[in-house]
Amino acid sequence: MAAIYFKGFNGVRFIAASAVIIHHIEEFKSVFLFNRDDLWARPFVYQLGRLGVSLFFVLSGFLITYLLLAEKQKTGKIAIRKFYVRRILRIWPLYFLVVGSGLLIFPHVPILHTPNELGDVYANFAGKLLFYGLVLPNVALALYDNTPLVSHTWSIGVEEQFYLMWPWLVMNRNPKRLLTIALSVIAVLASWFIYERFISRPVYLDRSQVSPFFSFIAFFLAQFRIGCMAIGGLGAYLLFSKNAIVPILFRRNVQWGVYAVLLACIAFSFRPTGINYEFYACFFCFMLLNLAGNPDSLVKLDNPVTRFMGDISYGLYMYHPVAIALVMNVLIKLWSSPPQTGGVADPLFVVLLYVFSFGITTLLAWLSYTYFEKPFLRFKDRFAVVASSRRPTDQPSDKASALS
């Protein structure tokens, strides 16, 4: 079987990573400069990074599911051990490098320090060390709140937990089980929506009445977006099985209509309570379906820049808080006058913040991908049963991975 290649997916990775970076630049700017009325307060910016992570989740669910289905078709089974080895070799090296540095090294580097509003690394340090070390960063975030420069890795925990169960579901001999599971996930999310909207919302108005356990469960479930990954997996199943609905979704008038609704929802910061991320995940899945299987896709995301940035997107995601903190501290020290006036940051300060934050993040991600991640990727290739490719001319290589 030839290596599986989906044109434009690197562009999707780049868009998702850029959305998260912009989100965190505005958050850091707000906290460092106390600009509570700046861009960070605008719903569009506030939601941007969250939708970027959701896009990553949908993409990961789509790719992983398609590769698992292709492996099952090719060999009649799924090599679970090899699957987990590939995931570990792709995700863990960079994860532990960033988390280890964030917990043990960065707190001793003054130029990387952040205001207390972004968290204290030493508060509940033993618990953080335990849960981050067990690759449960989403549990650490739910229990202990933010930890500077490493809390963004919560999404890695969500993906790892998704990977624990998903190949076993795909391996089931009845392919329609995937659809059943996806619908079940949607039903659970709908139940959670009803509970949050009509039952628990009054309690949220007074946090003193909420038990610590309830707070933990509510926060954990709010971040546990496996529904987005399941929606991506459903899209992969529809494409792989050549479902009758796919040609309808490929029609140009349908594409125009769906993308118009998506852009309007994003522009007006539409957020359906309780199912916000799953709502947008359906649109993202629609886009991935067209990129993956429709030669007449309206969205075109394949060019040298997006291919390069997509290759290093895992590093873009993992390193960007460090780059932003570095640039923010350096600019504040070098600025001759306060970088804000009347709650609005100096435009030149903002431009430099964006340029250098993106530039340093890209440099770190490229260096990491070239000199740190590639050896693990090459070793991971030995465990590939069905290969995927990031280029039409690439050698077969299983690089379909979380946030990369």
UniProtKB/TrEMBL annotation:
GO molecular function, one term: acyltransferase activity, transferring groups other than amino-acyl groups
Pfam families for this protein: Acyl_transf_3
A GO CC term attached to the entry: membrane
Domain of life: Bacteria
Limits of the Acyltransferase domain: 7-366
Transmembrane segments: 48-70, 91-109, 121-144, 178-195, 215-241, 253-271, 277-293, 314-336, 348-372
Keywords noted in UniProt: Acyltransferase, Membrane, Transferase, Transmembrane, Transmembrane helix
A biological process term (GO) from this entry: polysaccharide biosynthetic process
Signal sequence bounds: none
Name of this protein: Acyltransferase
The organism of origin for this protein: Fibrella rubiginis
